[in-house]
Amino acid sequence: xxxxxxxxxxxxxxxxxxxxxxxxxxxxxxxxxxxxxxxxxxxxxxxxxxxxxxxxxxxxxxxxxxxxxxxxxxxxxxxxxxxxxxxxxxxxxxxxxxxxxxxxxxxxxxxxxxxxxxxxxxxxxxxxxxxxxxxxxxxxxxxxxxxxxxxxxxxxxxxxxxxxxxxxxxxxxxxxxxxxxxxxxxxxxxxxxxxxxxxxxxxxxxxxxxxxxxxxxxxxxxxxxxxxxxxxxxxxxxxxxxxxxxxxxxxxxxxxxxxxxxxxxxxxxxxxxxxxxxxxxxxxxxxxxxxxxxxxxxxxxxxxxxxxxxxxxxxxxxxxxxxxxxxxxxxxxxxxxxxxxxxxxxxxxxxxxxxxxxxxxxxxxxxxxxxxxxxxxxxxxxxxxxxxxxxxxxxxxxxxxxxxxxxxxxxxxxxxxxxxxxxxxxxxxxxx
Length: 432
Hints:
Layout (H helix, E strand, L loop, with lengths): L4 H6 L1 E2 L2 E3 L1 H4 L1 H10 L6 E5 L8 E7 L2 E7 L5 E5 L14 E3 L3 E2 L6 E2 L5 E3 L24 E5 L2 E5 L7 H5 L3 H8 L7 E2 L5 E5 L3 H8 L5 H4 L27 H7 L3 E4 L6 E4 L11 H14 L1 H7 L4 E6 L3 E4 L4 E9 L2 E8 L1 E2 L4 H14 L7 H14 L7 E3 L8 E2 L5 E4 L4 H14 L4
Antiparallel strand pairs: 1-2, 2-22, 3-12, 4-5, 4-7, 5-6, 8-9, 9-10, 11-12, 13-21, 14-20, 15-16, 15-24, 16-17, 17-18, 18-19, 19-20, 23-24
Helix pairs in contact: 9-10
């Protein structure tokens, strides 16, 4: 396939996209360059590196990266590659180190990426410039932190992070404001797994309310309700493709940014249930001590259920977690799922968040297993000589523009997916 702008434009239409977007290795490679290489990518939360020397390893597209906290207290994002021979320096998922040391020839680097020392320096002559910054683990061109969420761009020429996030910032604000101390913590561990499918399948799914009563039918009781999602709740959300439950689901807000690809789905009715437990009451009291009663009541009224931050992160506020999408190949994707804890909340409340996430969004849970099976079947079925097109037409005729020109709709529409592919087309069509 020729990947010129005209061909790329022919692959994406308002309500359908060509199946090659999920199958073509050359398109995948171009995505890694033009989407993951030229826009803001979520790297990690700064609570994952609380102390100087703490680090995690991750990727932006095909680029191996390290996020570390240096001795100056700042968080840095650097390329995980030795400036000498190019070897990966930090091989573990996370750790703490005074210096990063390459296993190949022993060069050491500071935790901000600067070269610290060259092993056996005497072997280099006077012509060798040890002060050359290219010899270090170089820092990525752009890094920004929004309320603990660290984003980076491999390209210098990108808008500010706040401009990139746009209205989607409100989802981060809504989450972080629920912490009595005004900060969240992602340091309770992480689920990691791989699925046999394209990365976009996961991103689409994070804000897909249409699939729930069908994909997750096995998790619904005879009464039409799912299991409880939190301590102190006696029942889960009513889920059905018919009747009053379906009508309530159709009232949920759907929003998608046509320029940046972010999107969110409104809250679920179950989220309105306030547990009548001593732990929850202690939590509310802690919020009121910080914000007062009126503001606390606003904070406790959920507005967003799932938010997708294009292209590689989602935030869920019901079973609260951060999900990071790491593309591996056109048909392989790695997922990292981090439970969210509220700083200043009762310990038992935070522990319950972790326990319930194990039930819902681990690789062997009651919810995520359904989605992973759907991803596998999509990837396999798209190879069949059936239709060339994948459709996102649900609600296309009733999308409305908000004050910012983004799309707003309600219910089980595919507005958010249309926004994702509008962003895909914009980024993929950009000149080199």
